[in-house]
Amino acid sequence: MDYFHAFWVGGLICAVVQVLMDRTKLMPGRIMVLLVCIGAVLGFCNLYEPFQKFAGAGASVPLLGFGNTLWQGVKEAVDKSGFLGIFQGGFKAAAVGTSAALIFGYLASWIFEPRMKK
């Protein structure tokens, strides 16, 4: 049953994103930022954890999970450091994922030699 929830929730998220790309003027980058922000808002409202328990990997793999990770980092840092935690918490919580994306993206650019479209 858990696998079923993971597949249909993840698929539903992908379907909504596809509809947004096809039916609106939103660019993919803005949609990605929207998903990260929704994940952070769900975390703030204490709705992300029950959602993740219901949906499993369908909720944690997409960008919603990244937004929640950022929120959790900010929350912990604010509890520990006060106001400055707003600025440092997200960086600490998501540093590994962000660093990996940058490093692997850079390595891929060496391997595949991307060119700008004309």
Written description of the protein model:
The chain has about 120 residues and is mainly α. It contains 6 helices and no strands. The termini are far apart. The model has no long low-confidence stretch (mean pLDDT about 85).
Please render the helix and strand layout as text.
Layout: H1 2-23, H2 28-44, H3 48-55, H4 57-60, H5 63-81, H6 85-112
Helix pairs in contact: 2-5, 5-6
Which features characterize this protein?
118 residues, globular, mainly alpha
Can you tell me the overall shape?
Answer: globular
Count of DSSP-assigned helices: 6
Q: Extract low-pLDDT stretches.
A: none
**Total domain units:** 1
Quick take:
Helix content is 83%, strand content 0%. The protein is mostly helical. It has one domain (2-112).
